[in-house]
Amino acid sequence: MENLAQIAMESVNFQAIMPSLVLCCFGMVLLLVSVFLERGRTAPICWLSIIGLVVTGIISINGWNDPQAGFAGGVVLDNFATFFNLTCLIAAGLTILMSDSYLHREGYPVAEYYPLILFTTAGAMWMASGTDLMTIFLGLEVLSVSLYVLAGFFRGQLRSNEAGLKYFFLGAFSTGFMLYGVALLYGVTGTTKVAGIAEAIRLMPDASSNPMIIAGAILLSIGFLFKIGAAPFHMWTPDVYQGAPTPITAFMSAGPKAAAFAAFMRVTYISLDSLQVDMSAMFWVLAVLTMTIGNFVAIAQKDVKRMLAFSSISHAGYALVGMVAWNEVGFSGILFYMLVYTFMNIGAFAVLVLIGKQGEDNLTLDGMAGLGYKRPFLGVAMAIFLFSLMGLPPTAGFTGKFFIFAGALKAGYVWLAILGVLNSAVSLYYYLRVMVYMYFRDPVEDFSWVKMEMATIVSILIAIAGVLYLGVLPGPVMELAKLSIF
Amino acid sequence: MISVYHYMILSAILFAIGSFGVLTRKNMIVIFMCIELMLNSVNLTFIALSRHLGNMDGQIFVFFVMTVAAAEAAVGLALIIAFYRNKESIEVDDFRLLKW
Amino acid sequence: MEAMLFYLVALVSVISAFFVTKCRNPINSALCLVTTFLCLAVFYVMLQAPFMAAIQIMVYAGAIMVLIIFVIMLLNIGSVGKSRYTHGVAGAIVLSFLSFIVAAKFIAGGTVSKAVGDISAEVVQSYGHTELIGKAMFTEFLLPFEIASILLLVAIVGAVILSKRKV
Fold first, then answer.
1. How far is the alpha carbon of B99 from chain A, nearest alpha carbon, in Å?
2. What is the distance in angstroms between the Cα of B45 and the nearest Cα belonging to chain C?
């Protein structure tokens, strides 16, 4: 037995899971602390969770350029994982900042909300740093199960119930497909390690003609594409985004999506490298489909939250362009874009959180009429985020798209880049329409219910700073993204 | 002699039946059971392959799939109960507020 | 003998799986599902994985199915009236059948890897299946095991939050 313990201890490397470990500890401590607080008092938990995120962020940054592998090849904390970890931490931090006043306004001041966000973020970290399909799968499930709960968090509201249930059923369904893919890949290669699968496929003489590998790769991709929200697996996105509590929608559209991209990139880029031609072709079709469906359906939407859901589908499509390119520029472009997207999308949702009424998120286009005059700060903030989502300079949306399309051009996918730019042009229409309502329509409402909550304002300001900084001076962060490619 | 392919075909049949149920049934609890059926068919593949390949990875994976199934059962059924309290129904047709 | 047992149990499992999707009363579906789980447990024994067979019965047929049946009883759901299916049953039948054909073709056309490990039936018998599982789980797969504990914690907290009546 001592022998066994020795073997176990040899493979343990706590450095490799330090960020997620700290985050989980904070989550568990917060669960305990919340028991001793009186009901409805969530502010201390909120601030403690922010502290937890900051501490985790500092630990993550300390691990930069110091790759740590551990747990018998199950996990590796390289720059790639650190970059995505930081993206998810930022997403979680901005979400938590805007949450507290929102939860009180809606009448659900439940302290467990914050630990669940921390656990979701830890799940995202395991996805980003997992090098074993088992770790990635379990990380994905921690993330999904907490998000099912968070999407259905307002249990007295039918809308939230529906969102949670839809997310749950479609998520569990796609988990089934993903597992089947893992099983087939395991059967073909005899291992679930990402590097081991790559090795086994490389040694195979006829890898791309072995139908079981193809089937495994496709089924595995379905699981990730579902989480990313890429067409044709995007059906859940608009409904869940519209029904879930707004801060959760913001979080879902940024953090988990980035984590899914991280795991997807690691698996395809390392394990399925031998299938590059086939996978690239598949991504080409998916990217075009996703961009086009997202943008064209968004035009028809009246509800701003639902419109942003479709816009998030189209942004997943832009990021997929980087996967098609399959080169360093494209991959570092995805990393950069996910960070940019976190700032601009969460910022836009934070504005929606503030202008929503209690009990109903007053979010139709008509409801936004005149916002720019009645609440100038919120109007300007929303305008900045919308410009960034459109991809206009000098905002971060422009630089993000620029790097991704540059990757596609470098790999010779000229048409793909053209289609991407055309799609961005289409998206101008529905983003600009929101601006028109905000500034050129007479106000229907007086927005007297809008309370300028300090924490939410801070979250918006951070998002604006991020969008402008990454837009004007993309160099340093882009350099970091380039260093993050494995 | 029964080979690993027999088991894989059987599990593909079960998987197809499960996905058929998910796509067609109205009752949420039955849909949930069909999802469990799909996960179980994957488990069969894993164990058959693990036996064939002579390493334990597949069986460990099954262990975790069971954990995940248990966790999903708890959360999923809680969501169903919350929906039932508001709507007195467990049919997916009653998802009316958000377009499906 | 082994082949006969396989085909017999396979037949039972497929039929009961089919009735899971077909029964009007959710309780009947649940009982059919339990039958399928038991058939799978038989397969696990045939595949020299007795420990997995045991936890298949304890976790799936025991815990998860009891939970499902408990919820059915709690919500007091009777038989479904006229329509138990949503829409496009024919389409779904065709789709599932096609996907099965494709899957079967992929499986029949593909080749699984040759044995990569050294765990044969004899090794399982001499060591004991549980010991082998434990060894793998607490050495190589220690991290997934820990993550699973967080997953269960999240599920417990989530289930409590979602089903509490008062805030």
1. 7
2. 10
**Measured at the alpha carbon of residue A330, what is the angle toward residues A328 and A332, in degrees to the nearest 5?**
65
Alpha carbons C72 and C163: distance in angstroms, whole number: 15
Q: Does C86 touch chain A (CB under 8 A)?
A: no
Q: Inform me whether the pLDDT recorded for B100 exceeds 50.
A: no
Does residue C23 fall inside a structural domain?
yes
User: Which site among A119, A169, A197 would you substitute to test the B interface, given the most B Cβ atoms closer than 10 Å to its Cβ?
Assistant: A169
- Give pTM, 2 decimals: 0.95
Domain count, chain A: 1
| ipTM greater than cut 0.85 | yes
Which domains does chain B possess? 4-94 (1.10.287.3510)
Task: Report helix angle A158-189 to B4-24, nearest 10.
Answer: 170
Contact: B28, A190; criterion CB under 8 Å: no
| Chains in touch with B (≥3 Cβ pairs < 8 A) | A, C
Yes or no, beta carbons of C158 and B75 under 8 Å apart: yes
Residue among A176, A182, A190 minimizing CB distance to B35? A176
CA–CA min distance B2, chain A (Å): 17
State pLDDT tens for residues A394-443: 899 999 999 999 999 999 999 999 999 999 999 999 999 999 998 988 88
Q: Is A107 left (phi over 0), alpha (psi -120 to 50) or beta?
A: left
Domain of residue A148: give its range: 2-483
pLDDT of residue C123: 81
Asked if C74 and C147 sit in the same domain, the reply is no
What lies within 8 Å, CB to CB, of A155 at 6+ separation is A161, B82, B85, C161, C162, C163, C164
Residues C69 and C123 in one domain: no
